[in-house]
Amino acid sequence: xxxxxxxxxxxxxxxxxxxxxxxxxxxxxxxxxxxxxxxxxxxxxxxxxxxxxxxxxxxxxxxxxxxxxxxxxxxxxxxxxxxxxxxxxxxxxxxxxxxxxxxxxxxxxxxxxxxxxxxxxxxxxxxxxxxxxxxxxxxxxxxxxxxxxxxxxxxxxxxxxxxxxxxxxxxxxxxxxxxxxxxxxxxxxxxxxxxxxxxxxxxxxxxxxxxxxxxxxxxxxxxxxxxxxxxxxxxxxxxxxxxxxxxxxxxxxxxxxxxxxxxxxxxxxxxxxxxxxxxxxxxxxxxxxxxxxxxxxxxxxxxxxxxxxxxxxxxxxxxxxxxxxxxxxxxxxxxxxxxxxxxxxxxxxxxxxxxxxxxxxxxxxxxxxxxxxxxxxxxxxxxxxxxxxxxxxxxxxxxxxxxxxxxxxxxxxxxxxxxxxxxxxxxxxxxxxxxxxxxxxxxxxxxxxxxxxxxx
Length: 456
Known about the structure:
Elements: E1 2-5, H1 9-21, E2 26-29, H2 32-41, E3 46-50, H3 60-72, E4 78-83, H4 87-95, E5 100-104, H5 108-121, H6 131-137, H7 148-161, E6 167-170, H8 177-186, E7 195-199, H9 208-213, H10 230-233, E8 238-242, H11 249-261, E9 263-264, E10 273-274, E11 278-283, H12 287-293, H13 298-304, E12 307-310, H14 321-335, E13 342-343, H15 345-351, H16 359-373, E14 378-379, H17 381-386, H18 408-422, H19 427-434, H20 438-448
Parallel strand pairs: 1-2, 1-3, 3-4, 4-5, 6-11, 6-12, 7-8, 8-11, 13-14
Antiparallel strand pairs: 9-10
Helix pairs in contact: 2-3, 7-8, 11-13, 14-16, 18-19, 19-20
GO molecular function, one term: sequence-specific DNA binding
Protein name: Sigma-54-dependent Fis family transcriptional regulator
Keywords: ATP-binding, Nucleotide-binding, Phosphoprotein, Transcription, Transcription regulation
């Protein structure tokens, strides 16, 4: 049974009709006291709560009621209803334990989608699954490993994939966030629909609207034809927003609006378009810290992380390193037509001892480089060691500037300028030497006004 809490009988009636048509049992209450009395006697599966009552428009009474609900029924999911101008109020509610929020006027399909998602997530999880059991239920062919952390993560991914819940994937660079995003899509009801990847670190603020929402002919000087944006391309499918932590604040506002209202306007058009997408985001940055620092919007943070999946670093599941290495070698056998390639047991054991700060990406590059440069079909420790890059220099206290003498931003600027000079403005080489993606480097070059060649 779903409980609708709203002092407006018209809201309760319209919401009740919508839910009953979809087969849900519904009850309604119109005041805080009536609501608390009701949940003291009965336990609803889910509560839809309007934050504003007729005698109070600040939302304080609604937040107080939410706190009372969570005290009596802490495990019952609550969806808040608020206006677009009161999203800050909804964020306060999320901190008090609400699971999601919708804005007025709502879209019926989005309300139903949100309700089904939360009810599905409340289902009792299965006991811990083995890799074999997971592979029987889900399509995880591209995700390699048997580590307990990874299996628990994949179990969560499999359960969440069946819903339309927004997912935030976190973890260090190279841990396989894109693979997990693809796995979410491939195990969802949208798997036959588009899966659109967007690297937000590679899109400047001036191109953000055109890239994500499209544009119409004549919207700007070079807009000679209409162009569909990434959200329109992903309609009825999934969109993967990688490096979301790189997005500037003005672009965050525009993204929040389309995620909240499921509508957008192409650049240069006054006609709104509706979109139905499953949103998966990823970042290697600490968004909690960015929210505290004011560089990432709190309301957007709560909108994208109904479910958070944190990928372990490769060093935290070292037992999977030989499996990954063998997986890469098996792929390279076909690519380079070397069917006898294999990994020596001693090399497998040695690889497990490496720190691999670049995670799976670094391991893949190391294996491929060794295969390319070694003439042996059985790869030994010596083959890997011979083809490894020199160790990065360590920095002593004397080689770094004194604390307070330079800001982190100034240091970043100087390092980028030095790398650009050293590599003769070749962006790919500069990005590799700095340990960041080309797209992340482009944003920093634009930020600091450093000129560069558009082609490497």
